[in-house]
Amino acid sequence: MKKAILSISIWALFFCLARVSFAYETIPFRNGGNIEGLVEFVGNVIPKDKTFTISSDVKYCGKEHRTEKYLINAKGQIKNVIVYLKDIKAGKAAPQETVAVIDSKCTFVPHVMIGFKGNKFVLKNEDPVLHTGHIYSHIHGKTMFNIALPEKGSEITKTLTKTGLMELECDCHPWMEGFVYIFDHPYVTITDENGRFVINDVPPGVYTVEAWHESLGTKSISEVAVQSGKTVAIKLEFTGK
Predict the structure, then answer these.
(1) What angle do CA 115, 67, 57 make, to 5 degrees?
(2) Based on the domain organization, do 79 and 145 belong to the same domain?
(3) Contacts of 219 (CB under 8 A, 6+ apart)
(4) Checking DSSP bridges between strand 82-86 and strand 64-66, what pairing results, if any?
(5) Which among 108, 72, 71, 87 has a CA at the least distance from the CA of 188?
């Protein structure tokens, strides 16, 4: 009986330890490598963003709004894809900079941003109309906070205390949508209009590179080997959900 109890206790301890997650650690190192690449859509039909008519606050918002859900050019290259090293444990320090998103002409600018845990997040209204900062944890997740921005120049400031995706919405203008993806490490970037990205100063090692797109989901490449002073080139391809 005592052996059985001891066995159960050991297994319980094992599972408790297995659930412990180790925080990212800033370490000194020299002569890191780089990862550069391209993110493309390779399906038969490239998804297109849509333009629709606006019915409220037309004087300031305009009569039409074009979505930013895809941003794929004629060559299939995708803008606004967040590319990052998955589960990296140590490396250079994360930037100490504020994430600023602006309500401008009834649009969140920029539409997609990167944030870092422990830094400030600012949402500012530059329109002379009421907006709300309705922030969710992940897409259609739980409300983190919902604060009115009643006039031009009003703003809110919060501290980014958790990692993961935040979705931004405005209850007054339902077409408004934005995203802030929060990390505890600096090895993350966003693709440009040609689907290009670079992650610099990576400690030598073997990594999994993951890419997130708001409408197409996630893709990853494992076993990406980074060598000191060298650049490795990769390609990530989306085919749609």
Answers:
(1) 100
(2) no
(3) 210, 211, 236, 237, 238
(4) unpaired
(5) 87
Q: How far apart are CA 139 and CA 111, in angstroms?
A: 14
85 forms beta bridges with: 209
**In this structure, are 99 and 48 located in the same domain?**
no
As a whole number, mean pLDDT of residues 157-173 equals 96
Residue 1 lies inside a defined structural domain of this protein: no
Full domain range(s) for residue 175: 95-184
Place of tokens 């606006």: 54
Nearest to 90 by CA among 28, 25, 34: 25
Q: How far apart are CA 189 and CA 205, in angstroms?
A: 19
Enumerate the H helices of 19-141 as residue ranges: 58-61
Cis before 203 (ω within 30): no
Residue 43 in domain: yes
Provide the domain count of the chain. 2
Same domain as 100, residue 81: no
Residue 170 burial (10 A CB sphere; 0-12, 13-18, 19+): buried
pLDDT in tens, 81-125: 999 999 999 999 999 999 999 999 999 999 999 999 999 999 999
The domain that contains 159 carries what CATH number? 2.60.40.420
Structure tokens at 1: 């009986």
